[in-house]
Amino acid sequence: MQKSQPTKIDSTPVLIPLLLAAKSCVKEIAAAGERHELSVDEWLILDALSSSDGLTMSQLQQHCVGAASSITRAVDRMVERALVFREVGQADRRQVFVHISTLGDSLYTKFSRELGRVEEQLNQELQDANIDPATLKAVLEKFN
């Protein structure tokens, strides 16, 4: 029996390099997070909350692309550390909103500054390759 050959793709494959780059970024974020006792999911939660006036758990789950149970556990840990707080919705008391606290916002700002080096390196590589960072961001956001 003859082995079938894999189908060749005419375009340049980008999935593997993209995945490897993402893993490298996650590694950098996790290393910085250890210094602040902050997981990658917790940083993503703070990121989502820093630019909003509170989000529901389902909205956070969408932003962080994680399992509902892991996002809930992360928010629980963050509530214990006073990085975020929960508030019952005024219009619908069944809804619970999560908000970033002053302490959480301060930690998010400090942590994001530390990661600025990674962001600058990425932007420089994109500019050197004549790739507009805003265009790449728009393309990547379509996958989220």
From TrEMBL:
Pfam families (alphabetical): MarR_2
Identify the InterPro entries for this entry. HTH_MarR-typ (IPR000835), WH-like_DNA-bd_sf (IPR036388), WH_DNA-bd_sf (IPR036390)
What domain of life? Answer: Bacteria
> Would I find Transcription regulation among this entry's keywords?
yes
Domain HTH marR-type residues, every copy? 11-144
Query: Any idea which UniProt keywords this protein has?
Result: DNA-binding, Transcription, Transcription regulation
Keyword field contains Transcription regulation: yes
- GO MF terms on file? DNA binding; DNA-binding transcription factor activity
Q: Which PROSITE patterns match?
A: HTH_MARR_2
Q: Which PANTHER family match?
A: TRANSCRIPTIONAL REGULATOR, MARR (PTHR42756), TRANSCRIPTIONAL REPRESSOR OF EMRAB OPERON (PTHR42756:SF1)
Q: Which protein is depicted?
A: MarR family transcriptional regulator
- Protein's organism: Corynebacterium stationis
Query: What's the source species' lineage?
Result: Bacteria, Bacillati, Actinomycetota, Actinomycetes, Mycobacteriales
